[in-house]
Amino acid sequence: LDHSLQQQHTLQSVSELAAGMAHHLRNPLTTVKGFTQMLVTSPHLAENADFIEIMLKEIESIAFITDELAILAKPHLMNMKPLSVDLLFQEVLANITYTHSDTVVTLEAPDDLSPFICGDYHQIRLLFHHLIKNALEAMENGGELKISLECTETEDVKIIIHDEGSGMNEEVLQRIGEPFYTTKDNGTGLGLLLCKRIIQHHHGTFSLLSELNKGTIVTMTLPRIHQQAASSCL
Ligand code: ADP
Ligand code: MG
Fold this sequence. Notes:
Elements: H1 2-41, H2 49-73, E1 80-84, H3 85-94, E2 103-108, E3 116-120, H4 121-138, E4 143-151, E5 156-163, H5 170-175, H6 191-201, E6 205-211, E7 215-225
Helix pairs in contact: 1-2, 3-4, 4-6
Bound molecules: adenosine-5'-diphosphate and magnesium ion.
Magnesium ion binds at residues 130, 133-134, 191.
Protein backbone atom coordinates (compact mmCIF):
# COMPACT_ATOMS: atom_id res chain seq x y z
CA LEU A 1 0.00 0.00 0.00
CA ASP A 2 2.77 2.38 1.00
CA HIS A 3 4.62 1.74 -2.18
CA SER A 4 1.69 2.38 -4.50
CA LEU A 5 0.80 5.46 -2.52
CA GLN A 6 4.32 6.73 -2.99
CA GLN A 7 4.15 5.90 -6.69
CA GLN A 8 0.98 7.88 -6.94
CA HIS A 9 2.71 10.83 -5.26
CA THR A 10 5.61 10.56 -7.65
CA LEU A 11 3.31 10.46 -10.64
CA GLN A 12 1.44 13.46 -9.34
CA SER A 13 4.58 15.51 -8.84
CA VAL A 14 5.87 14.48 -12.25
CA SER A 15 2.69 15.69 -13.89
CA GLU A 16 2.76 18.91 -11.87
CA LEU A 17 6.33 19.49 -12.91
CA ALA A 18 5.53 18.73 -16.53
CA ALA A 19 2.54 21.07 -16.48
CA GLY A 20 4.62 23.87 -15.02
CA MET A 21 7.42 23.38 -17.52
CA ALA A 22 5.01 23.25 -20.43
CA HIS A 23 3.44 26.48 -19.29
CA HIS A 24 6.72 28.33 -18.90
CA LEU A 25 8.16 27.13 -22.18
CA ARG A 26 5.04 27.49 -24.29
CA ASN A 27 4.64 31.27 -24.01
CA PRO A 28 8.13 32.24 -25.19
CA LEU A 29 8.03 29.52 -27.85
CA THR A 30 4.75 30.86 -29.20
CA THR A 31 6.24 34.34 -29.47
CA VAL A 32 9.38 33.10 -31.21
CA LYS A 33 7.33 30.99 -33.59
CA GLY A 34 5.03 33.88 -34.48
CA PHE A 35 7.87 36.28 -35.20
CA THR A 36 9.78 33.67 -37.16
CA GLN A 37 6.74 33.15 -39.37
CA MET A 38 6.54 36.90 -39.92
CA LEU A 39 10.20 37.04 -40.87
CA VAL A 40 9.65 34.32 -43.44
CA THR A 41 7.07 36.40 -45.23
CA SER A 42 8.84 39.71 -44.71
CA PRO A 43 12.54 39.08 -44.37
CA HIS A 44 13.72 42.71 -44.26
CA LEU A 45 15.99 42.71 -41.29
CA ALA A 46 16.20 46.47 -40.77
CA GLU A 47 12.46 46.85 -40.17
CA ASN A 48 12.34 43.73 -38.07
CA ALA A 49 15.18 44.53 -35.68
CA ASP A 50 12.76 45.09 -32.78
CA PHE A 51 11.08 41.75 -33.36
CA ILE A 52 14.41 40.00 -33.48
CA GLU A 53 15.35 41.58 -30.17
CA ILE A 54 12.14 40.28 -28.60
CA MET A 55 12.81 36.86 -30.06
CA LEU A 56 16.29 36.86 -28.55
CA LYS A 57 14.89 37.78 -25.14
CA GLU A 58 12.36 34.97 -25.34
CA ILE A 59 15.00 32.50 -26.42
CA GLU A 60 17.16 33.63 -23.49
CA SER A 61 14.31 32.99 -21.10
CA ILE A 62 13.83 29.50 -22.56
CA ALA A 63 17.56 28.88 -22.11
CA PHE A 64 17.47 30.24 -18.54
CA ILE A 65 14.60 28.03 -17.41
CA THR A 66 16.18 25.04 -19.16
CA ASP A 67 19.43 25.61 -17.24
CA GLU A 68 17.49 25.82 -14.00
CA LEU A 69 15.64 22.59 -14.70
CA ALA A 70 18.96 20.94 -15.52
CA ILE A 71 20.29 21.90 -12.08
CA LEU A 72 17.23 20.33 -10.49
CA ALA A 73 17.54 17.25 -12.66
CA LYS A 74 21.29 16.64 -12.47
CA PRO A 75 22.61 18.00 -9.19
CA HIS A 76 25.70 15.81 -9.42
CA LEU A 77 27.10 17.70 -12.40
CA MET A 78 28.98 20.24 -10.35
CA ASN A 79 32.28 21.89 -11.04
CA MET A 80 33.68 22.85 -7.64
CA LYS A 81 36.06 25.82 -7.45
CA PRO A 82 37.14 28.27 -4.77
CA LEU A 83 34.82 31.27 -4.98
CA SER A 84 35.07 34.65 -3.30
CA VAL A 85 31.64 35.30 -1.82
CA ASP A 86 31.80 39.07 -1.94
CA LEU A 87 33.22 39.23 -5.47
CA LEU A 88 30.42 36.97 -6.61
CA PHE A 89 27.84 39.19 -4.93
CA GLN A 90 29.37 42.24 -6.62
CA GLU A 91 29.18 40.46 -9.95
CA VAL A 92 25.54 39.48 -9.49
CA LEU A 93 24.60 42.98 -8.29
CA ALA A 94 26.25 44.51 -11.36
CA ASN A 95 24.05 42.37 -13.60
CA ILE A 96 20.72 43.06 -11.92
CA THR A 97 18.29 45.53 -13.43
CA TYR A 98 16.98 47.80 -10.74
CA THR A 99 13.28 48.39 -11.08
CA HIS A 100 13.07 51.23 -8.61
CA SER A 101 15.23 54.31 -8.29
CA ASP A 102 14.76 54.58 -4.51
CA THR A 103 16.47 51.29 -3.89
CA VAL A 104 19.74 51.22 -2.00
CA VAL A 105 21.82 48.09 -1.88
CA THR A 106 24.67 47.68 0.56
CA LEU A 107 27.14 44.85 0.74
CA GLU A 108 29.03 44.50 4.01
CA ALA A 109 31.92 42.13 4.20
CA PRO A 110 34.62 41.61 6.82
CA ASP A 111 37.45 43.77 5.46
CA ASP A 112 40.30 41.83 6.96
CA LEU A 113 39.56 38.64 5.10
CA SER A 114 37.31 37.94 2.17
CA PRO A 115 35.37 34.72 2.75
CA PHE A 116 35.85 31.93 0.24
CA ILE A 117 33.70 28.91 -0.34
CA CYS A 118 34.05 25.87 -2.47
CA GLY A 119 31.24 25.84 -4.95
CA ASP A 120 29.86 25.55 -8.44
CA TYR A 121 30.16 29.02 -9.98
CA HIS A 122 26.91 28.87 -12.00
CA GLN A 123 24.87 27.48 -9.14
CA ILE A 124 26.12 29.94 -6.53
CA ARG A 125 25.59 32.81 -8.96
CA LEU A 126 22.05 31.65 -9.57
CA LEU A 127 21.49 31.33 -5.82
CA PHE A 128 22.57 34.92 -5.14
CA HIS A 129 20.72 36.15 -8.23
CA HIS A 130 17.39 34.68 -7.14
CA LEU A 131 17.63 35.90 -3.56
CA ILE A 132 18.55 39.45 -4.61
CA LYS A 133 15.86 39.47 -7.27
CA ASN A 134 13.20 38.30 -4.83
CA ALA A 135 14.24 40.99 -2.37
CA LEU A 136 14.15 43.75 -4.99
CA GLU A 137 10.82 42.55 -6.38
CA ALA A 138 9.38 42.67 -2.86
CA MET A 139 10.46 46.31 -2.47
CA GLU A 140 7.97 47.84 -4.87
CA ASN A 141 8.44 51.28 -3.35
CA GLY A 142 12.16 51.03 -2.97
CA GLY A 143 13.99 50.70 0.32
CA GLU A 144 17.23 49.29 1.59
CA LEU A 145 18.57 45.89 0.75
CA LYS A 146 21.35 44.89 3.12
CA ILE A 147 23.64 42.02 2.35
CA SER A 148 26.14 41.11 5.02
CA LEU A 149 28.79 38.45 5.18
CA GLU A 150 30.27 37.08 8.37
CA CYS A 151 32.85 34.45 9.10
CA THR A 152 31.61 32.25 11.93
CA GLU A 153 33.60 30.31 14.49
CA THR A 154 32.27 27.12 12.97
CA GLU A 155 34.22 27.80 9.77
CA ASP A 156 31.15 28.87 7.85
CA VAL A 157 30.33 31.97 5.90
CA LYS A 158 27.08 33.41 7.14
CA ILE A 159 25.21 35.38 4.51
CA ILE A 160 22.33 37.60 5.57
CA ILE A 161 20.06 39.21 2.99
CA HIS A 162 17.73 41.67 4.62
CA ASP A 163 15.07 43.51 2.61
CA GLU A 164 12.50 46.10 3.57
CA GLY A 165 9.90 44.70 1.21
CA SER A 166 6.35 43.39 1.43
CA GLY A 167 7.18 40.40 3.58
CA MET A 168 5.09 37.24 3.35
CA ASN A 169 1.86 36.11 4.97
CA GLU A 170 1.34 32.67 6.51
CA GLU A 171 0.01 31.10 3.34
CA VAL A 172 2.95 32.25 1.24
CA LEU A 173 5.42 31.18 3.94
CA GLN A 174 3.86 27.71 3.98
CA ARG A 175 4.03 27.33 0.24
CA ILE A 176 7.34 28.88 -0.83
CA GLY A 177 9.68 26.37 -2.38
CA GLU A 178 6.85 24.33 -3.89
CA PRO A 179 7.63 23.91 -7.58
CA PHE A 180 6.07 26.74 -9.59
CA TYR A 181 4.47 28.42 -6.59
CA THR A 182 4.48 32.14 -7.28
CA THR A 183 2.47 35.19 -6.29
CA LYS A 184 3.83 37.20 -9.24
CA ASP A 185 2.29 37.66 -12.66
CA ASN A 186 5.58 36.93 -14.39
CA GLY A 187 7.17 34.70 -11.77
CA THR A 188 8.26 31.12 -12.43
CA GLY A 189 8.07 29.93 -8.84
CA LEU A 190 11.32 28.04 -9.28
CA GLY A 191 13.60 30.49 -7.50
CA LEU A 192 13.42 29.37 -3.88
CA LEU A 193 13.13 25.70 -4.77
CA LEU A 194 16.35 26.08 -6.70
CA CYS A 195 18.01 28.08 -3.90
CA LYS A 196 17.23 25.37 -1.37
CA ARG A 197 18.56 22.64 -3.66
CA ILE A 198 21.74 24.57 -4.44
CA ILE A 199 22.40 25.14 -0.74
CA GLN A 200 21.85 21.43 -0.10
CA HIS A 201 24.35 20.59 -2.86
CA HIS A 202 26.85 22.82 -1.07
CA HIS A 203 26.17 21.44 2.44
CA GLY A 204 24.85 24.72 3.71
CA THR A 205 21.86 25.84 5.74
CA PHE A 206 18.98 28.14 4.86
CA SER A 207 16.44 29.94 6.99
CA LEU A 208 13.94 32.66 6.38
CA LEU A 209 12.24 35.15 8.65
CA SER A 210 9.52 37.35 7.29
CA GLU A 211 7.11 39.91 8.60
CA LEU A 212 4.24 41.21 6.51
CA ASN A 213 4.76 44.81 5.38
CA LYS A 214 8.12 44.93 7.18
CA GLY A 215 10.46 42.76 5.19
CA THR A 216 12.31 39.51 4.98
CA ILE A 217 15.60 38.22 6.32
CA VAL A 218 17.21 35.29 4.57
CA THR A 219 20.10 33.69 6.45
CA MET A 220 22.36 31.12 4.87
CA THR A 221 25.55 29.44 5.88
CA LEU A 222 28.03 27.81 3.54
CA PRO A 223 31.20 25.97 4.56
CA ARG A 224 34.21 28.27 4.35
CA ILE A 225 37.61 27.41 2.91
CA HIS A 226 40.91 29.21 2.97
CA GLN A 227 41.61 31.23 -0.12
CA GLN A 228 44.60 29.24 -1.32
CA ALA A 229 43.12 25.86 -0.56
CA ALA A 230 41.85 25.11 -4.04
CA SER A 231 42.76 21.48 -3.39
CA SER A 232 40.05 21.27 -0.72
CA CYS A 233 37.49 21.60 -3.51
CA LEU A 234 38.55 18.42 -5.23
P1 ADP B 1 9.12 33.77 -8.10
O1 ADP B 1 10.09 34.84 -7.67
O2 ADP B 1 9.29 33.41 -9.53
O3 ADP B 1 7.71 34.08 -7.73
P2 ADP B 1 10.35 32.24 -5.97
O4 ADP B 1 10.44 30.79 -5.69
O5 ADP B 1 11.63 32.99 -6.08
O6 ADP B 1 9.48 32.42 -7.29
O7 ADP B 1 9.47 32.93 -4.83
C1 ADP B 1 8.18 32.39 -4.54
C2 ADP B 1 7.32 33.41 -3.84
O8 ADP B 1 7.85 33.69 -2.55
C3 ADP B 1 7.26 34.76 -4.54
O9 ADP B 1 6.29 34.77 -5.56
C4 ADP B 1 6.94 35.69 -3.38
O10 ADP B 1 5.55 35.70 -3.11
C5 ADP B 1 7.62 35.03 -2.20
N1 ADP B 1 8.91 35.66 -1.86
C6 ADP B 1 10.13 35.17 -2.08
N2 ADP B 1 11.10 35.97 -1.62
C7 ADP B 1 10.47 37.03 -1.06
C8 ADP B 1 10.91 38.23 -0.39
N3 ADP B 1 12.22 38.51 -0.22
N4 ADP B 1 9.95 39.08 0.08
C9 ADP B 1 8.64 38.81 -0.09
N5 ADP B 1 8.18 37.71 -0.72
C10 ADP B 1 9.06 36.82 -1.20
MG1 MG C 1 12.15 34.58 -7.47
